[in-house]
Amino acid sequence: MTARSLLTALALLAAAPACADTAFPARLAAHAVLPALSLIVPPADAPRDSWVSGKFTGPDGPARRVTAPMSLPGAYGIARPFIGQPLQGLSGFAMQHAADGSIYALTDNGFGSKANSPDALLFFHRIVPDFETGTVEVRETVFLRDPDFRVPFRIALEGTDARYLTGADFDPESIQIVGENVWIGEEFGPYLIRATLDGRVLSVHPTISGGTELRGPDHPAVSALSAAGTDWQVPRSGGYEGMALQPGSGLLWAMLEKPILAPDGTPEGQFLRVMAFDPATGVWTGDAFRFPLADGATAIGDFNFIDDTRALVIERDNGEGDPSLACSGDRAPDCFPNPARVKNVVLIDTESVDANGLVRRIGHIDLMNIADPDGLARLETDAARDLTGIFTFPFFTIEDVILWDDSHILVANDNNLPFSSGRKLGAAANNELILLSVPGLLTAD
Fold first, then answer.
1. SS3 breakdown of the chain: % helix, strand, coil, rounded to 5?
2. With b meaning 16 or more CB within 10 Å and e meaning fewer, what string describes 279-318?
3. Which one, 162, 322, 374, 429, has least CB within 10 Å?
4. Which residues form the signal peptide (predicted)?
């Protein structure tokens, strides 16, 4: 072995423990579904404009308003604009349940971008899956608003009395409850937002790392002529997809969805930054670690602690649909052009961080290989292989995970209505909530 090859081998060996973790089995324990086309009415004092949403999602995007409801056919069978606000995009679960046992769940910015979502209101919910019936009850929806002008920049509904927030202002992706406040991590700034449990914004916190502000391309201070890696470092849709509340310290650990950019505009590495914020003082503490992504993973979906030091992280690729139906050539109705291959729930040990700042991966489960010996799946999956006894979660964005009890976790997807499929060819994805039995994963250390 040459000296060069020896050094290469040693380097690979040194890097291996960060991503070398144990694969644990998972079994489907229950399955509930919130239908794709689930709509809610906006608040009575919201502008009339909010009664029809998705008006800027046509072929010309924000350049041309489409006002006729359901006049734009969708690739997956659901037309838009919608009458009302879509109850889609479950983008984060809070670790703490409400007093009645319901789950705090967050809806994202609406239709995916700042430009096409000015008529999408921002809100979070309290939901309860009923695994006996396979349904999901929405007990409350809370709309975010800024009547006290706490948001430092001009919002889309600036001149209105209630000042409801929209998808043109923020992209909410993660949520935690601290005392009587809700904390939301978002992606445009990226910012952390503090609000009351009835939706009134109390403060907005920019991201500070190493004494400087980290920004994304949709930050209000970033111009169209800005340079990636210097004027902004957080990629678009790369903000706080995950934000975990640490039980012992009370700190919020905010995880960026994608690797930040180096000064030359390229990703700094195959890892994600995780930074600590103290909700009691409203400052970033300077504590941080790095989450190493597995081969093939491009982003994370959610992040929640299960005890004082161990936490669950969803990591994923950008695919959707069963790999057995991968297109062999051009996109076609009977295949998935980019199927799901890497969809994991990873257990990490935040007390174990190596010299490079990489947190230790204890183990993971594969969401594309869940045992279903009892046939509990409520929906069929399109596939060109035998899935008897196997349940898969073949969605683009899987963005919710929390500890359910000592042996189970709850996982859910963001269905990106009306732009994502996954379970069935040509059909819009539903919001699915799955209860997984994973005792081996939860007891690993």
1. 5, 40, 55
2. beeeebeeebbbbbbbeebbbbbbbbbbeeebbbbbbbbe
3. 374
4. 1-20
| pTM > 0.70 | yes
Phi first, then psi, for residue 112 (nearest 5°) are 110, -20
Q: What percent of the chain has pLDDT over 90?
A: 94
How many residues appear in the chain? Answer: 445
Candidate CATH numbers 3.40.50, 3.30.1330, 2.60.40, 2.115.10; the one for domain 22-443: 2.115.10
Alpha-helical segments (H) within 77-170: none
Q: Position of tokens 């479950």?
A: 90
| CA 251 from centre of chain | 20
The single-letter DSSP state of residue 211 is T
Neighbour tally for 10: CB within 10 Å: 10
Residue type, 18: A
- How far apart are the C-alpha atoms of 347 and 314, rounded to whole Å? 9
- pLDDT tens per residue across span 25-53: 999 999 999 999 999 999 999 999 999 99
Amino acid occupying residue 431:
N
Q: Which strands, in side-by-side order, build the sheet including 90-93? A: 90-93, 103-107, 123-130, 135-143
Beta bridge partners of 195: 182, 201
Q: Each residue of 170-206: pLDDT tens digit? A: 999 999 999 999 999 999 999 999 999 999 999 999 9
| CB distance 185 to 242 below 8 Å | yes
